[in-house]
């Protein structure tokens, strides 16, 4: 399927690896020019080179920096001639017990997983509406729909973003101007974060890493972890010209792990 977004410009956050990289790769394959951001310069440059090889006809720019800071956002936005597509993404806060989290821990979680996406939306959405095209995808978490007790910081911050988007996406001056805002909620995907959290769980419980990993996989009806490429493929469709009637939605990708009807 031709997604109808060839020649558009996308800003993809936290794109040096994992799900952000999968999204950038899918967009580049469909002819979208991208600005990718991440904090690690070396990994970011490796990814930029990989993306250029996927589609030599597009422009790929890399901007190393912390997207949760004003300076990091300004640098990323300045590198993008216009933002037709915005993919908000940031690593989740650490797990733990809410009794141990002070105000600074909560503010850091809110900055990364709620306020930063909102600031980037605010910086881009009006120009999208003026041009009559805009696609915003927020990568949140399956924990928004099925909270995980040790991920309270993430549950809270990402749920706050979800509530904000639910109202904003339905504003007639955006939805009526072909600007859509949706959230993608990943379950367990084969990423560095999955393996790091698995190792942490194994260490905390004095268990074998592989047994913990197998137990996680066993809870997924699909019988496997997701891949960054299949996540990216859905992201590219949500950003496509064909998805103009899809807005304000939470798209759960978890291999069937969530047991509910709604």
Automatic annotation (TrEMBL):
Protein name (database record): Short-chain dehydrogenase/reductase SDR
Xref: CDD domains: BKR_like_SDR_like
InterPro entries: NAD(P)-bd_dom_sf, SDR, SDR_fam
Family: Belongs to the short-chain dehydrogenases/reductases (SDR) family.
SUPFAM superfamilies: NAD(P)-binding Rossmann-fold domains
One family name in Pfam for this protein: adh_short_C2
């Amino acid at each position: 399927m031709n997604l109808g977004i060839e020649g558009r410009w996308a800003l993809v956050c936290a794109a040096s690896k994992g799900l952000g990289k999968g999204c950038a790769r899918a967009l580049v394959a469909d002819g979208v020019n991208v600005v990718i951001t991440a904090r690690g310069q070396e990994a970011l440059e490796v990814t930029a080179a990989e993306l250029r090889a996927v589609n030599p006809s597009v422009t790929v720019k890399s901007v190393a920096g912390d997207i949760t800071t004003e300076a990091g956002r300004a640098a990323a936005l300045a590198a993008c001639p216009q933002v037709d597509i915005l993919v908000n993404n940031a690593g989740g806060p650490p797990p733990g017990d809410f009794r141990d989290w002070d105000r600074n821990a909560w503010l850091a979680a809110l900055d990364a997983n709620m306020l930063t996406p909102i600031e980037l939306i605010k910086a881009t959405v009006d120009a999208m509406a003026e041009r009559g095209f805009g696609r915003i995808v927020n990568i949140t978490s399956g924990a928004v729909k099925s909270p995980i007790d040790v991920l309270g910081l993430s549950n809270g911050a990402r749920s706050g973003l979800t509530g904000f988007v639910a109202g904003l996406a339905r504003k007639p001056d955006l939805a009526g101007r072909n600007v859509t805002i949706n959230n993608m909620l990943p379950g367990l995907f084969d990423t560095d974060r999955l393996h790091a959290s698995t190792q942490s769980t194994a260490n905390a419980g004095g268990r074998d890493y592989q047994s913990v990993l197998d137990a996680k996989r066993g809870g997924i009806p699909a019988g496997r972890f997701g891949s960054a490429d299949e996540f990216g493929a859905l992201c590219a469709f949500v950003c496509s010209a064909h998805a103009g009637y899809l807005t304000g939605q939470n798209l759960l990708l978890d291999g069937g792990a969530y047991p509910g009807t709604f």
